[in-house]
């Protein structure tokens, strides 16, 4: 869009703010939901916001999302290529569009029977992580909850997807990689918003180090790559020479996608359970019942084994995770307008300009009191009905197709969603079966909106909790 900006007929109302470049970004970051719902009351379900140098037309009515999903002239690829370049320094996606398509085909290896193998690997790593604890006496261990979740999720996910480090170096390798990863991840929104990496202290050298760890040569030192990494590598080798470090940048992208949202989801799930003993007790009951009905006794060592179907039968466990995602996801879903066009919505036609963005902001849906009663409250059984999974939610008396969108939608829907949920379920089953736990800092936490528009939000501080092997 050219400046000074003059609205053309058919274009939605524009809210520019007074700050050059940032526009309304600071207000949105301070209170994303409050700000968006105020604008919705004032301007309706369709309006354009000027944010960080971009014009983004938000469509807030969930019955209109379909028009965005179906429109072929709204591109996700253009959005994602720029993002990969800024954050991970992956350059080839900008020019080789078929590379993106090929990589997408590899994501089928994150579901179906392939997921069973990933689950097996996850259980093996959980065993490695927790077995030493189980052999300890029953004294309490005190830890920070976010630190605990980051460490376990990083190790479990990295090992399931990228493989295992040969014994000996394993712990040192994992600790160093994890620490570098979270330092890099801490500056992720800066990078995504286009701040040059040179202005971010030592992040450039940390990113270079991470990329190097994941180049062809170093990846080859890991054992048991998942099928998705194997296929990604095969595809990349057709586009790059084996020594090209950009291969490592692609793998860093996958590592980031697999860890960065799973960690805060795990954190909030544990946190809500620790602060809601009724929910914790209901989940323990559900898990105990399943273990009994599958003839599994909790012995002294680590012996649980559950299939995917058995995990899926834990409806209260799943509902708890869905509820956490509803409360803590502040992702935006974006598409780039490829040419001037008119989006036909039920209530109006909406003219859009080439190069601008269309955005959907699911938190407005997730916190809509017409869809979710008392939306601010954590209700672990919200996604259950008569002991079964609940999938029908209504607005204006009409059944909603989209009511829960922490994983995005359409072409960009998260391909790792099944793995993320299974992994969190496995960790919770292990943790609730073998350990008693208590929160120590019983202070209420808030979401820190540093990553608003990008996934699950982190808490504004860490909290202490303690756990011990059940006697
Ligand atoms: C609770 C955990 C997770 C959440 C909330 C989450 C959420 C998301 C969201 C919102 C997107 C972007 C959608 C968009 O821009 O429209 C995405 C993309 C992606 N996610 Fe996840 N994700 C999670 C875990 C995982 C895991 C475990 C993996 C494993 C590999 C993964 C792999 C990916 C990939 C590869 C993409 C990019 C897809 C593309 O380029 O189209 N995610 N995820």
Describe the structure.
With 471 residues, the chain is an alpha+beta fold. It folds into 2 domains: 122 residues, Uridine Diphospho-n-acetylenolpyruvylglucosamine Reductase, domain 2 (2-Layer Sandwich), CATH 3.30.43.20; 339 residues, Cytochrome P450 (Cytochrome p450), CATH 1.10.630.10. It contains 19 helices and 17 strands. Strands 1-2-3-9-6-4 form a 6-stranded mixed β-sheet. Strand 10 and strand 11 form a beta hairpin. Helix 5 packs antiparallel against helix 12, helix 6 crosses helix 7 and helix 6 packs parallel to helix 19. The longest helix is centred in the first third of the chain and has 22 residues. The protein is globular and about 70 Å long. The model has no long low-confidence stretch (mean pLDDT 92). Bound molecules: protoporphyrin IX containing FE. Protoporphyrin IX containing FE (HEM) binds next to helix 13, helix 14 and helix 19.
Oligomer: single chain
Stated plainly, the CATH topology of the largest domain is called Cytochrome p450
Fraction of residues in helix: 40-55%
Helix tally?
19
Features:
Cytochrome p450, 47% helix, three-stranded antiparallel β-sheet, Cyt_P450_sf, 19 helices, endoplasmic reticulum, 13% strand, binds protoporphyrin IX containing FE, lipid metabolism, Uridine Diphospho-n-acetylenolpyruvylglucosamine Reductase, domain 2, 471 residues, six-stranded mixed β-sheet, 2 domains, alpha+beta
Summarize the structure.
Helix content is 47%, strand content 13%.
């Amino acid at each position: 869009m050219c400046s000074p900006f003059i609205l053309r007929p058919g274009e939605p109302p524009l809210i520019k703010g007074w700050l050059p470049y940032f526009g309304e970004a600071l207000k949105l970051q301070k209170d994303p939901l409050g700000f968006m719902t105020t604008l919705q009351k004032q301007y309706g379900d369709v309006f354009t916001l000027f944010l960080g140098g971009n014009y983004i037309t938000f469509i807030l009515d969930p019955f209109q999302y379909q028009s965005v999903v179906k429109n072929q002239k709204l591109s996700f690829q253009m959005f994602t290529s720029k993002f990969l370049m800024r954050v991970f320094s992956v350059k080839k996606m900008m020019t080789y569009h078929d590379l993106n398509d090929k990589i997408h085909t590899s994501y089928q290896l994150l579901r179906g029977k392939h997921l069973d193998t990933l689950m097996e690997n996850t259980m093996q790593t959980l065993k490695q992580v927790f077995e030493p604890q189980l052999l300890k006496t029953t004294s309490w261990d005190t830890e920070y909850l976010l630190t605990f979740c980051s460490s376990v999720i990083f190790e479990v996910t990295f090992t399931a997807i990228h493989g295992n480090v040969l014994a000996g170096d394993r712990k040192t390798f994992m600790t160093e990689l994890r620490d570098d990863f979270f330092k890099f991840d801490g500056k992720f929104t800066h990078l995504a918003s286009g701040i040059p990496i040179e202005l971010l202290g030592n992040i450039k050298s940390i990113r270079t180090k991470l990329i190097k760890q994941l180049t062809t040569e170093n990846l080859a030192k890991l054992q048991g790559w998942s099928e998705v990494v194997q296929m990604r590598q095969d595809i990349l080798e057709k586009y790059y020479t084996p020594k090209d470090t950009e291969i490592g940048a692609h793998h860093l992208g996958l590592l980031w996608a697999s860890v960065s949202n799973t960690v805060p989801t795990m954190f909030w799930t544990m946190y809500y359970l620790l602060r809601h003993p009724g929910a914790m007790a209901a989940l323990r009951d559900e898990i105990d019942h399943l273990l009994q009905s599958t003839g599994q006794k909790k012995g002294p060592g680590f012996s649980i084994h559950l299939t995917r179907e058995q995990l899926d039968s834990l409806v209260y466990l799943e509902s708890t995770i869905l509820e956490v995602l509803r409360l803590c996801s502040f992702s935006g879903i974006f598409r780039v307008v490829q040419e001037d066009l008119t989006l036909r919505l039920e209530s109006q036609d909406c003219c859009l300009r080439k190069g601008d963005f269309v955005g959907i902001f699911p938190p407005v849906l997730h916190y809509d009191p017409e869809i979710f009663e008392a939306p601010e409250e954590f209700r672990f059984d919200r996604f259950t009905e008569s002991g079964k999974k609940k999938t029908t939610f209504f607005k204006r008396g009409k059944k909603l197709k989209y009511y829960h969108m922490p994983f995005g939608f359409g072409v960009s829907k998260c391909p790792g969603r099944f793995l993320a949920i299974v992994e969190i379920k496995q960790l919770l089953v292990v943790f609730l079966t073998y350990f008693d736990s208590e929160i120590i800092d019983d202070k209420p936490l808030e979401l820190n909106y540093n990553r608003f528009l990008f996934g699950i939000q982190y808490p504004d501080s860490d909290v202490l909790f303690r756990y011990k092997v059940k006697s």
